[in-house]
From TrEMBL:
Gene Ontology terms: biological process: secondary metabolic process
One protein family per Pfam: Amidohydro_2
Protein name: 2-amino-3-carboxylmuconate-6-semialdehyde decarboxylase
Example of a GO cellular component annotation carried by this entry: cytoplasm
Keywords carried by this UniProt record: Lyase
Residues covered by the Amidohydrolase-related domain: 123-394
Gene3D superfamilies linked to this entry: Metal-dependent hydrolases
């Protein structure tokens, strides 16, 4: 099995040890709410429908939220010179709820009937070093996630495993271990592996195994500021790489999965696309009638890029086979669009906690309020909150 090259290293930085010490200390500080303010264009994540969010004890299973087991976090933050860690360190170093369970549980107390299906917070383990190191991080992370679920079943109902797809054989072996020995209910993957698209032939055995195991496959975006906005520039500005780049990553992943025939070959695969299915519901006209014309306007020298895809139905029909979460940060109109495109039965409650401005409860609160704001039947709403993920995972999820 060919392997993907190890990540580039950054030169050692003076004061790195001091930074790690400060980081370690910050992870132990007590949670403090943000100042009383509302972000433009969002549901007020502090006060959004308190009746719906905080009083109703209807079951809510958060199918896409993040955590860092403490031992894993300490090892991660001590990892010197890895670009992905350096780029994301500032983003996660001031979020105590990623690591501190006391902080996290105080936040979750606001939401009766709420439990989480946890996964490892970014960055991807593939970015940490050579294949052996990346695989070891995945193994340690999965052990930590399993321990959290076993120790706190009233808070964590399950976990989705991490794998290092730098080496596909190793990834499959770790996936099997996580499922059969640790009880993982799914797997979290990223939209590419160090720039390699996941429709490359080398990944076919992984998709086959995911289909055989009948797992939930969470898909998380993956890029950083080194992905420039324009080819004439060295890096992205204004965090465009995050605000828009991550959504392009997710949408491009979906397209490559569709046109490479992965869903044609494995129609039972359960891809859960973060951020409400990303761009696809909002551009259904381009995905539908637009891609119905694929190849008809392509110049001859580029036709190999648009022909030969093994599909037996319209492209848009495959895009409707994905699942979407509710992690749209208070954008109720966007969630409504996702439900209209995928159908309520393919939308799973997910918050992206704890990355909101309050560092934990804000996106949970707004996601709950958004689901209540939709014109759904009680049965459909209960499905989004918990029934849909229970239907997908069956006996893997405890009662």
């Amino acid at each position: 099995m060919s392997r993907i090259e190890a990540p580039a290293r950054l030169p050692s930085q003076a004061g790195h040890d001091l930074l790690c010490i400060r980081l370690h200390n910050r992870l132990h500080i007590r949670f403090r709410s943000m100042s009383e303010r509302t972000l433009d264009g969002m549901t007020d994540v502090r006060t959004a429908d308190k009746t719906a969010a905080g009083v109703s004890d209807v079951e809510k299973l958060d199918a896409f939220c993040h955590v860092l087991p403490r031992d894993y976090a300490e090892r991660l933050f001590a990892l010197d010179g890895v670009a992905a860690v350096a780029n994301l360190r500032r983003r996660i170093m001031n979020i105590p709820a990623l690591v501190d369970l006391d902080v996290r549980f105080r936040q979750l107390d606001e939401f009766p009937g709420y439990r989480q299906i946890i996964n490892l917070a970014a960055p991807p383990v593939e970015d940490f070093g050579d294949p052996k190191l990346s695989a070891d991080f995945a193994r340690q992370g999965n052990d930590g996630l399993a321990s959290l679920v076993a120790g706190h079943p009233d808070r964590f109902i399950g976990f989705c495993a991490a794998v290092s797809l730098t080496d596909v054989d190793t990834a499959i072996a770790e996936l099997d271990r996580a499922v059969h020995q640790l009880g993982a209910v799914g797997v979290q993957i990223y939209t590419h592996v160090r720039g390699h698209p996941l429709d490359e032939d080398r990944f076919e055995p992984f998709w086959r195994r995911c289909a055989e195991l009948d797992l939930l496959v969470q898909v998380h975006p993956c890029r950083n500021s080194s992905w420039a906005d324009y080819p004439t520039e060295e890096r992205s500005k204004y965090e465009i790489w995050w605000t828009f780049g991550w959504e392009y990553d997710l949408s491009a992943f979906m397209a490559r999965i569709v046109f490479s025939g992965v869903l044609e070959r494995y129609p039972a695969l359960k891809f859960l696309i973060h951020h409400g299915g990303s761009m696809i519901p909002h551009f259904s006209g381009r995905v539908g009638p637009g891609w119905d014309q694929l190849g008809s306007r392509t110049p001859p020298h580029q036709r190999e890029d648009v022909t030969g895809y093994p599909l037996t139905k319209r492209p848009v029909d495959y895009f409707r086979m994905f699942y979407a979460d509710t992690a749209l940060f208070g954008a109720t109109h966007a969630l409504r669009c996702a439900v209209e495109f995928f159908g309520s039965e393919r939308v799973l409650f997910g918050s992206d906690s704890p990355y909101d401005p309050e560092k934990g409860p804000g996106y949970i609160r707004s996601a709950i309020a958004d689901v209540h704001a939709l014109d759904l039947t009680d049965e459909q709403r209960a499905g989004v909150f918990a029934g849909n993920v229970r239907r997908l995972l069956g006996s893997r999820l405890p009662t």
